[in-house]
């Protein structure tokens, strides 16, 4: 008997020692952030566009109104809010698991035989049970629920950041299309005048039908392009309206040329992605959730201790009816140690470990993806600014070329094709200028999203 007692004590001590690791909270694994940004020497400043705030970055009042409306009404963001509420409910349930469960179960009966007095019995009973969290089963469930809640909050932030970036991108695309439409319509007026001039030269014997037909063909092609631009404007407005959870309507907006952004942009330090970028935070909270799920799977191998008791006021004592009634009490303590569960606990632990390893890989990959997006955004912004300098010079050169070829056509025998070609190249350069300005703004938007702007 004494040997069995000491054996039990020894086994219990071993369980306590091995079970300590189950209570360890999650700690971030070592992650490699060096080298995430190319040309790191240009981004040593800890200041980041992520801390600037979208209102300071996007100063256009019309755009700010659209973003406010989107944050209030967008369907995806509202769904993300409901996920947070659901996770909060799960966490509340996990926290309440520390408390005992109490059940009130009153009952009564009446029985009798013919000619005999009816017998009435009653029982006002209450019972309670409490599982003591010796090996972290409840603790890990609570921590897992907390990690799930933080993950859902990070997901909501990711949806919000993506929504802001998408609304801004659609808005500035509208401004670019507006600019291209203005350029095309102004050019169309000039081309019609050129067509009339060539017709006049033909009547004067200084041109021919081929020149008139070529000018007309160019003008018709531009008119078709104007129709396509208007179609794109309408489709972009429809898409932006859907983002705002609204019916399709005209969007109030400013002009592309009036948009102002900082002359320099900073992505901050790579390590800041762990705190700023919501999808990276979500991936880490998923890892923490998997860590606690693994701990919970381990705790299934350890014993569980449950205390239960009941009390009640009854007049049915051992089958004998007594009046008035009396109090009854009972208390029970039970210890359950799993020995064989058809391999379920082992399978659950292996599955939890595999999911934890998967979550770690996804967390590491989320950092690499974030670094890639930051690099691409900076490259896009810088390249657009360089291209704009060249295109601006090209436009000034082409404007001078158009002016001189028109004069030559009027006063010399210069071929009409030189005029048409010069005008075509000028139009293409002006449209490219609007495209490059939009590309520069897209670089700003992409960087805002890539560093986890708010």
Automatic annotation (TrEMBL):
<dbReference type="InterPro" id="IPR003423">
    <property type="entry name" value="OMP_efflux"/>
</dbReference>
<dbReference type="InterPro" id="IPR010131">
    <property type="entry name" value="MdtP/NodT-like"/>
</dbReference>
<protein>
    <submittedName>
        <fullName>NodT family efflux transporter, outer membrane factor (OMF) lipoprotein</fullName>
    </submittedName>
</protein>
<keyword id="KW-0449">Lipoprotein</keyword>
<dbReference type="Pfam" id="PF02321">
    <property type="entry name" value="OEP"/>
</dbReference>
<keyword id="KW-0472">Membrane</keyword>
<keyword id="KW-1134">Transmembrane beta strand</keyword>
<keyword id="KW-0564">Palmitate</keyword>
<dbReference type="GO" id="GO:0015562">
    <property type="term" value="F:efflux transmembrane transporter activity"/>
</dbReference>
<dbReference type="GO" id="GO:0005886">
    <property type="term" value="C:plasma membrane"/>
</dbReference>
<keyword id="KW-0812">Transmembrane</keyword>
<comment type="similarity">
    <text>Belongs to the outer membrane factor (OMF) (TC 1.B.17) family.</text>
</comment>
């Amino acid at each position: 008997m004494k040997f069995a007692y000491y054996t039990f004590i020894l086994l219990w001590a071993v369980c306590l020692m091995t079970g300590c690791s189950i209570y360890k909270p999650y700690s971030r694994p070592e992650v490699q952030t060096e080298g995430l940004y190319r040309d790191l020497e240009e981004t040593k400043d800890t200041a980041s566009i992520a801390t600037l705030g979208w209102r300071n970055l996007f100063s256009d009042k019309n755009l700010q109104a659209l973003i406010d409306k989107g944050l209030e009404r967008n369907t995806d963001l509202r769904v993300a809010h409901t996920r947070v509420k659901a996770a909060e409910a799960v966490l509340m349930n996990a926290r309440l698991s520390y408390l005992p469960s109490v059940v009130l179960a009153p009952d009564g009966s009446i029985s009798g035989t013919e000619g005999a007095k009816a017998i009435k019995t009653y029982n006002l009973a209450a019972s309670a049970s409490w599982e003591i969290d010796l090996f972290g089963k409840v603790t890990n469930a609570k921590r897992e629920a907390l990690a799930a809640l933080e993950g859902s909050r990070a997901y909501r932030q990711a949806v919000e950041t993506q929504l802001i970036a998408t609304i801004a991108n659609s808005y500035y695309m509208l401004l670019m299309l507006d600019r291209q439409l203005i350029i095309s319509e102004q050019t169309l007026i000039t081309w019609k005048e050129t067509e009339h001039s060539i017709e006049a030269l033909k009547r004067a014997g200084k041109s021919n039908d081929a020149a008139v037909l070529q000018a007309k063909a160019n003008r018709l092609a531009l008119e078709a392009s104007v129709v396509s631009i208007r179609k794109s404007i309408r489709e972009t407005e429809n898409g932006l309206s859907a983002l705002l959870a609204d019916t399709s309507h005209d969007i109030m907006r400013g002009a592309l040329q009036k948009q102002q952004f900082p002359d320099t942009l900073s992505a901050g330090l790579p390590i800041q992605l762990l705190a700023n970028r919501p999808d990276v935070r979500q991936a880490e909270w998923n890892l923490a959730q998997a860590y606690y799920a693994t701990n919970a799977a381990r705790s299934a191998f350890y014993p569980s201790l449950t205390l239960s008791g009941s009390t009640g006021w009854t007049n049915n004592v051992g089958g004998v009816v007594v009046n008035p009634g009396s109090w009854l009490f009972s208390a029970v303590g039970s210890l359950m140690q799993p020995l064989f569960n058809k391999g379920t606990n082992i399978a659950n632990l292996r599955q939890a470990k595999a999911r934890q390893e998967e979550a770690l890989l996804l967390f590491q990959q989320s950092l690499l993806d974030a670094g890639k997006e930051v690099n691409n955004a900076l490259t896009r912004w810088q390249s657009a600014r360089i291209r704009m300098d060249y295109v601006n010079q090209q436009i000034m050169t082409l404007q001078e070329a158009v002016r001189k070829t028109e004069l030559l056509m009027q006063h010399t025998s210069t071929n009409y094709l030189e005029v048409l070609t010069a005008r075509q190249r000028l139009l293409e350069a002006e449209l490219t200028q609007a495209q490059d300005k939009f590309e520069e703004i897209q670089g700003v938007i992409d960087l805002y999203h890539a560093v986890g702007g708010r």
